[in-house]
Specification:
The complex is a heterodimer of chains A (about 220) and B (about 350).
Chain A lengths: L1 H24 L2 E9 L2 E8 L5 E18 L5 E19 L3 E16 L3 E16 L3 E4 L5 E4 L5 E14 L8 E15 L2 E14 L7 E9 L1
Parallel strand pairs in A: 3-12
Antiparallel strand pairs in A: 1-12, 2-3, 2-11, 3-4, 4-5, 5-6, 6-9, 7-8, 9-10, 10-11
Chain B lengths: L1 H15 L12 E9 L2 E9 L5 E6 L13 H6 L5 E5 L18 H19 L4 E8 H10 L10 E7 L3 H21 L4 H13 L6 H14 L11 H8 L7 H13 L2 H5 L15 E6 L7 H10 L5 E6 L6 H4 L1 H15 L1
Parallel strand pairs in B: 3-4, 3-5, 5-6, 6-7, 7-8
Antiparallel strand pairs in B: 1-2, 2-4
Helix pairs in contact in B: 3-4, 5-6, 5-7
Classes of the chains: A mainly beta (about 220), B alpha/beta (about 350).
Chain lengths: ~220, ~350
């Protein structure tokens, strides 16, 4: 009986110590709801030599401001923004097809104090291609007709990663430039899939009060 | 909102403007159009002299290889200056597009596609246009199917058969025989001993009545075998790629995915048993047969089988001593000379 008591004491002590230490290590967190303006986006949306364009709106969903204490004793600010972006994109591949496609993407952007940001996105959408030449149909009797606006409808998924530079942080210009690599996958394409690497170079414009959305913002200190 | 709507209308019109019909009758033409047939929109590139009113329809190999790879500078300078070549991407090949259309990937459907290609060529360039068909590798089987079906022969002036196959079971037996006989010669000469030994051992162990896997394995050995022969002109695939990929706007990922799909499609199992040797007697048109001496994939024995079986009175067989499976690249001079002469004689 005495032995049992002896075991219990250090166990309870350890548990108390663990809980209190854990409590001290917890981040200070403040959650608020603020109105944040949506961003407008335009980019050159190419597959190396084949031109294209993307026009989009980034609607803010969630934002986290994280202040970290570095080992050197300095404070480091990281902002994690989450957006839903709605885009219309197009590219032109001569002799193959023109592709007009619409995507809804979930974008995660991580910005640093040094004005550099990186972002990752994943989305889904709809594609309509227009074949790169007059399209004919010949029937059993050999009568040939031209098919107007010939092309196909596809479902698509798109994923990408990129980086950029935010001019609004120090210079107060509400613009960012970015570069991004996306992979577009369309299906069903000839009973299989079609994928296409896409390189983007673009601008993000952050107007003061365009399509303001009440967004959950969390300020965290670590 | 109104402006956005107007913008999309204008954008839509701009995109469909690429589909406006443009037919050029000139000495140096390069134009692309598509033919839609049963779930597939197949790309056609017409390159060369359309004012000649002579069109050579190139029926590529594979299935799934696509016609882009055949469009070499040498052909442009030595055939397309006189006649137009029609580079047709068969369904599920090259730049051909569609949705779920795998169920239509059959030899019968592709034969019908070829018929439609010729109908559209005549619709665009005039009913008085003269059409020659040229089949390479699997294209040999497809053109054999076309030539022996119904009244298709009436649509063309002549048939060029380049390193093709009209009989897959015979093809397997001839490939095995050739791998074995050339392999034993090469071993006696002590050339590429390890590789030839493997090939000869495989052929000795698999003597006939080949399964689909055995047939595929022999094709792999056949493709490699010609690269072990010093006399055979090597094809520089990279040079072909760098010279043409940008110039002809190759849709690389489409070509790759179509090739992967077609090469694994169930169609290949069906083709393994198909032969047209027994129906070649129906062919009465002029025929030009071109083979490489060292073509292990489609051995020249297939050429002799074709030559002996067609009823044509005007027929010619040429064997290139420096060529393997791709005579149009490996012996370009002979290939262009023979094709030009054949067309000049029969147009």
């Amino acid at each position: 009986m005495e032995n049992r008591k002896n075991i219990k004491r250090p166990l309870i002590g350890s548990l108390f110590l663990f809980l209190s230490l854990n409590g001290f290590a917890q981040t200070d967190s403040l959650i608020s709801k603020v109105k944040i303006s949506s961003n407008l986006l335009i980019s050159y949306n190419s597959s190396l030599i084949y031109p294209g364009i993307r026009l989009g709106i980034e609607i803010p969903v969630y934002s986290v401001s994280l202040t970290k204490n570095t080992n050197a004793g300095r404070k480091k600010l990281i902002i994690k923004d989450h957006f839903i972006s709605v885009n219309s994109r197009w590219y032109h591949h001569p002799g193959f097809h023109d592709n007009l496609y619409f995507t809804a993407e979930w974008t995660m952007r991580r910005s640093y104090k040094v004005r550099i940001f990186n972002d990752y996105s994943f989305g889904t959408g709809y594609s309509r291609t227009f074949l790169g030449g007059t399209t004919y149909h010949a029937d059993k009797n050999g009568t040939v007709n031209i098919i107007k606006s010939a092309g196909y409808n596809y479902a698509l998924i798109i994923a990408g990663a990129g980086f950029g530079f935010d001019f609004s942080k120090k210079r107060g210009i509400p613009l960012s430039v970015f570069s991004k690599f996306d992979v577009l996958t369309m299906f069903p394409y000839n009973s299989t899939i079609y994928f296409r690497p896409i390189l983007e170079l673009g601008l993000i414009y952050k107007p003061g009060n365009f399509l303001q959305i009440l967004t959950k913002r969390r300020v965290k200190k670590k | 909102m109104k402006h956005i709507f107007q913008f999309f209308i204008l954008f839509f019109l701009a995109m469909t403007s690429c589909q406006k019909e443009k037919i050029t009758i000139a000495q140096k033409v390069s134009e692309t159009f598509y033919i839609e047939n049963r779930g597939a929109s197949m790309r056609i590139l017409v390159d060369g002299n359309t004012s000649s009113k002579v069109f050579i329809v190139f029926v590529h190999g594979g299935p799934g290889v696509g016609a882009f790879v055949y469009n070499s500078d040498y052909l442009s300078n030595n055939i397309e200056d006189k006649y137009a070549i029609v580079y047709w991407d068969e369904r599920n090949s090259g730049a051909s597009q569609g949705n779920s259309n795998g169920m239509f990937l059959t030899l019968e459907q592709m034969t019908d596609d070829l018929r439609k290609v010729i109908q559209v060529i005549k619709f665009r360039y005039g009913q008085n246009s003269e059409v020659f068909i040229m089949g390479h590798s699997f294209g040999g089987l497809l053109t054999s199917s076309f030539m022996t079906t119904g009244n298709n022969q009436e649509m063309v002036q002549g048939w060029i058969f380049a390193d093709g196959s009209q009989n897959y079971p015979l093809n397997d037996s001839l490939t095995r025989q050739m791998l074995l006989s050339v392999g034993q010669q090469q071993l006696a000469l002590n050339n590429n001993r390890v590789k030839w030994q493997e090939i000869v051992s495989y052929c000795n162990a698999h003597t006939g009545n080949f399964s689909f896997d055995e047939s595929n394995q022999m094709m792999k050995y056949a493709e490699d075998a010609e690269t072990y022969i010093y006399e055979v002109t090597k094809v520089n695939s990279w040079e072909l790629f760098w010279n043409n990929a940008i110039k002809f706007n190759w849709p690389l990922t489409s070509m790759l995915m179509n090739y992967l799909y077609s090469s694994e499609a169930s169609l290949n199992n069906d083709l393994a048993k198909i032969e047209f040797s027994s129906s070649l007697y129906k062919v009465t048109l002029p025929v030009l047969i071109l083979f490489g001496q060292y073509d292990f994939v489609c051995p020249k024995g297939l050429g002799y089988d074709l030559y002996n079986r067609v009823s044509s009175t005007d027929k010619k067989i040429i064997i290139s001593p420096i060529s393997g499976h791709n005579i149009m690249f490996q012996d370009e001079v002979l290939f262009c000379r023979e094709v030009n002469e054949f067309i000049a004689l029969h147009r």
